[in-house]
Amino acid sequence: MGRGDRPLIEVEGLERRFGAVAALAGLSLAVERGAWVAVTGPSGSGKTTLLNVLAGLDRPTAGRVRVEGRELTALSGRELARYRQRSVGLVFQQFYLIPYLTAVENVMLAQYVHSVTDRGEAAAALERVGLADRLDHLPSQLSGGEQQRVCVARALINQPPLVLADEPTGNLDAANQDAVLELLTDLHRRGHTLVLVTHSPALAALAGVEVRLDHGRLAGPAEAAAATAVAVGAAR
Amino acid sequence: MIARLLGASLRRRWRQLALIFVAVGAAAASVAAVVGFAARAHAGLAEDLAAFGPNLLVRPQVGAPPTLPAAEVERVRGIAGVTWATGVRESSPDAQRTGDAGEGGVERIEVRADRGRLGEVAAAIEAAVPGAEARPLLRVSESEAALGRRLTALLAALGVLTCLLAAISVGAATTALVDERRAEYGLFLALGFTGRRTAAIFATELLTAALAAALAGDVAGEAAAAALAGRLLTGAATGAAAAPWGTLAASTAAAVLVAGAAMTFALRRVERLEPAQVLRGE
Q: A191: part of which helix (H) or strand (E)?
């Protein structure tokens, strides 16, 4: 099987324990390139833990995680950092913008990981998310929706194949939720693979596939198939 | 980008960084004061050495005849760098000084030579006058030299104490800064910066503040050294810095050492941050 044929993400028997608590308990799934997957489930079901493991921010206790054919569990700290630089764009519920940098500088920070910054490119990314007139505003001068759009622009500036978003609309009002949903739809249309953690039924409905977690395991209709693996096809 | 990142961060945290600036500045100032004072005391010795009268004494070497031929006075006068030379006969009834070579021998020849060339002139005299030994004259009193040494030692002890206290304060301040900025560093790590690179950005920020503190400390330390030397040492150089680059180098080294030692623990904390934990708010 060539690299292009295999799923972008392959997870097998994934476990993540925090002391006696199992946040993920033998989870297996696969995500095809270009898919849009919504990960849903009650609080404490392991959604964010799954996202952190896929992002290379956390290491599993057991199991295998393969992204673009790379076994994440085998990577050193430095290699995981390189993986995050090149393969992953992260969108956070809390935005995590640097408060003393302007919108465009926050986007340039993601470029700076590669030691090269391009203000024009960062400005263009902000224009694409509708913030052409907010380039030099500090995060404190932006609304929640605008901050989230800066976060999306920052996640995309390095053209990562995989975008992981943790409750991207969780802190937004209805109008701003719509704006961010529109952005995500556009991202998906342009071929990015999206894995989103959400409590929002609207967002889950937009995704091609919904993966429901409960106590660190797949739940709901997919549960039976989850004993070995869940193949998540490309979005509808 | 790094300059913008540093500038913006320093401007935003000037209150927290002020403590680091003051502590490192105090350490740098105390070291600059020690070096500046010691340099002035040394310069004071050299000044007194050449302030007036002869500054070189030529005597017969041990084991040589007890007098030098009077004709050698004239030979010494002819050596480059010698302003004047006088032969002295101490054993004569009036221990007279003789401006002329005269008859017989002299016990010593007093010489005034260019201040900056004393060593060179002394060597030239020893080469030109067989059996002669030429030595610079020291006119500083022993008590003043001892005072200078004691004050330098006291200032040095104070400098060490100040550096230790500064290192403790800066260590506490940098550790608090890391705790305050955990989310920021967590983001850096999430974006793909390695722990070491994230720590390096933090270190650059602190070292920038430390270098600014070193400059301010150097100016303050120099002023203190000049004031102390002027008050306590007669004839010491009290105006311009006796060794400006020396004190700047010493104060900069002290600032970098204090800041470097103090932030080691904080930098290790940055390197060991777990981004997932930080972003979860733990």
A: none
- Look at residue A216 and tell me whether its pLDDT is greater than 80: yes
- Hey, are the CB atoms on B193 and A78 less than 8 Å from each other? no
Q: How does pLDDT run across B120-129, given as a tens digit for each residue?
A: 899 999 999 9
Q: How many CB pairs under 8 A join A and B?
A: 64
Q: Which residues of A touch B192 (CB under 8 A)?
A: 81-86, 113
**How would you label B231-267 residue by residue, b for 16+ Cβ within 10 Å and e otherwise?**
eebebbbbeebbbeeebbbbbbebbbbbbbbbbeebb
- What are the residue boundaries of the structural domains of chain B, listed by start? 2-47+142-279, 52-136
Its domain, for residue A140, covers 34-59+77-209
Of the candidates B78, B68, B66, which has an alpha carbon nearest to the alpha carbon of residue B130?
A: B68
Residue A93: inside a domain, yes or no? yes
A225 inside domain: no
Q: Which fold has domain B52-136?
A: Alpha-Beta Plaits (3.30.70)
**pLDDT tens profile B143-183:** 666 777 888 888 889 889 999 999 999 999 899 888 888 99
Q: Backbone dihedral region of A76: left (phi > 0), alpha (psi from -120 to 50 degrees) or beta?
A: beta
Structural domain total, chain A: 1
Please give the angle made by the CA atoms of B7, B276 and A192, to the nearest 5 degrees: 85
Of A84, A99, A105, the CB nearest to B191: A84
Answer whether A98 sits within 8 Å of B184, measured CB to CB.
Answer: yes
Q: Which of A57-71, A91-105, B87-101 has the lowest mean pLDDT?
A: B87-101
pTM for the structure as a whole: 0.71
Nearest CA in chain A to B198: A113
B229-281 pLDDT per residue, tens: 777 766 545 555 556 788 888 889 999 999 999 889 889 999 888 888 888 77
How far is it, in rounded angstroms, from Cα B196 to Cα A58? Answer: 18
Tell me what ipTM this predicted complex has. Answer: 0.86
